[in-house]
Automatic annotation (TrEMBL):
CDD domains: FHA (cd00060). This is FHA domain-containing protein. Residues 265-276 have a biased composition (Polar residues). Gene3D superfamilies: 2.60.200.20. InterPro entries: FHA_dom, SMAD_FHA_dom_sf. It holds the Pfam family FHA. It comes from Aeoliella mucimassa. SUPFAM superfamilies: SMAD/FHA domain (SSF49879). Transmembrane segments: none annotated.
Length: 474
């Protein structure tokens, strides 16, 4: 009868022949086998095979699985296993990723990659100091995001001194550039805050809105800028175009009918943590403006762009070779962020994560579709996406309007829909959970004279002496 240890080794060899490396390693790695020469020889063979698998996984991009194989190979054969090159390869991979994240402005992601070096015993004195610098930088960015630019600038003085002490390498150059950028943003935010205070004191509300928007692009959670913008909205008499707030809870999106009649939640209402963008039918409608064109109007704060498919809930379907859910555009406090779910390029820059959109940015999807993003009106957070590559939406539209608070149609260049022959403006806006219109021009809604604020619904026809438009469900 064979001894137990021989049976175990035989079982391990069978597992190895069948390609079950992990099972073979688990058997040979038992304490009661370590003293046998045959077990040590098989353990060395297994270590070589696991190291070979680690190389393949790392080359294929599965670096976490590759690293687990490196650790397993070291446990199987100790220092006799030639995995030093794999450890160095993995270390360089983490450094390269951290560099790329820093170049993209994703400091938190860079910090996570550098922290992995420390956790996995791949750190050096230089990378440890770099991690400390990046952590200070991340703290500064977080303070700046809430408007504490002076405190953020103060926290960067330590990292600047440490950078001067480190040698000049590719890694430190990228960190230094990011530190300089945040320092510049802190100074710009400080200067804008002074200008905002002066503009508010002088009641220059148009300038207040412009300055507040610029501050919020640097510090999205700056309460001072948010409050100044709300005050300016009230001062210019357009408070009715702000999102309706009922029962202390903001309505994230509105349909053309009263919200009491809605049979489904908004795609951005967050009623469930499991709801992802594009899983619910979008709130949108088509607006046909006579002698001007057709416009797809999206009412949700979060819209998905992608390829049209049967029974799809994509808000902005584009007839092109795209993913079904290619990208998400989100609106928050008047700012827009694009989140790439597939390949997205903005102004020639490939995205690896969310990016705040600015006026006249060019968005490229899938290498073929190009859209121009604009925010035409300073007093409205509504944005416009205009196809510039010849690809069409479904339903077909000349442009897509991401309607936040109001939509202005008229002859001036800052209108969301430019109607050059019109004698004045018409405004669509949200009020008390409904879509309404108003104009200083004589206007009828479905043949009834409109006097002041007038609710409108799907199928409505708005007409004046020299203009007309229709609203249809999409």
């Amino acid at each position: 009868m064979l001894p137990t240890w021989r049976k175990q080794l035989g079982e391990a060899r069978r597992a190895l022949r069948e390609g079950q490396l992990d099972r073979a390693c688990a058997i040979v790695g038992q304490d009661d086998l370590k003293d046998f020469r045959q077990a040590r020889e098989l353990s060395a063979e297994l270590a070589e095979r696991v190291a070979e698998r680690a190389r393949g996984r790392m080359q294929a991009g599965y670096t976490s699985a590759g690293w687990r194989d490196v650790e397993l190979a070291e446990r199987m054969a100790g220092n006799d296993c030639p995995v030093a090159d794999l450890r160095q390869s993995y270390r360089q991979h983490l450094l390269d990723r951290a560099q790329q994240f820093l170049a993209d402005g994703r400091t938190a992601a860079a910090e996570q990659e550098l922290a992995k070096l420390a956790r996995r015993g791949l750190n050096s004195s230089e990378t440890a100091e770099m991690l400390e610098i990046v952590q200070h930088l991340l703290q500064a960015e977080q303070m700046l995001s809430v408007g504490k630019s002076a405190e953020a600038a103060q926290s960067l003085r330590g990292p600047t001194v440490q950078l001067n002490r480190l040698g000049v390498t590719m890694d430190t150059q990228l960190v230094a550039r990011r530190v300089e950028q945040v320092e510049h943003d802190c100074q710009e935010h400080h200067d804008l805050a002074s200008q905002l205070h002066a503009a508010s004191a002088n009641q220059e509300w148009q300038q207040v809105l412009e300055l507040a928007d610029r501050m919020l692009s640097l510090a999205p959670r700056d309460r001072v800028a948010q409050a100044a913008r709300k005050k300016a909205w009230r001062a210019v008499g357009l408070d009715a175009t702000r999102l309706f707030h009922g029962a202390g809870r903001p309505v994230a999106s509105l349909s053309l009918k009263d919200t009491a009649d809605l049979k489904r939640p908004s795609s951005s209402s967050h009623t469930s943590n499991d709801t992802m963008p594009g899983s619910e039918p979008p709130n949108r409608f088509m607006m046909w403006v006579d002698a001007v064109g057709g416009f797809l109007v999206c009412l949700d704060e979060e819209v998905v762009l992608g390829q049209p498919t049967p029974n799809s809930n994509i808000a902005i379907p584009l007839c092109a070779d795209l993913s079904r859910r290619h990208a998400v555009i989100r609106r928050e406090g008047g700012n827009y962020t694009i989140d790439p779910l597939s390949d997205v390029v903005v102004d020639g820059r490939p995205l690896t994560g969310p990016m705040v959109l600015a006026n006249h940015h060019t968005i490229e999807l899938g290498g073929t579709v190009r859209l121009e993003f604009t925010k035409p009106h300073a007093l409205s957070a509504t944005a416009r996406l205009t196809p510039i590559s010849g690809h069409r939406t479904e339903p077909r539209a000349d442009a897509v309007l991401l309607m936040a608070d109001s939509c202005v149609m008229g002859p001036r260049s800052h209108s969301h829909v430019i109607c050059r022959r019109w004698p004045g403006d018409i405004m669509l806006f949200r009020q008390a959970g409904r879509l309404c219109c108003r104009s200083n021009l004589p206007l009828t809604v479905d043949g009834v004279a409109a006097d002041g604020v007038t609710p409108v619904e799907a199928g409505a026809r708005l007409e004046g002496e020299s203009f007309a438009l229709s609203l249809e469900e999409a």
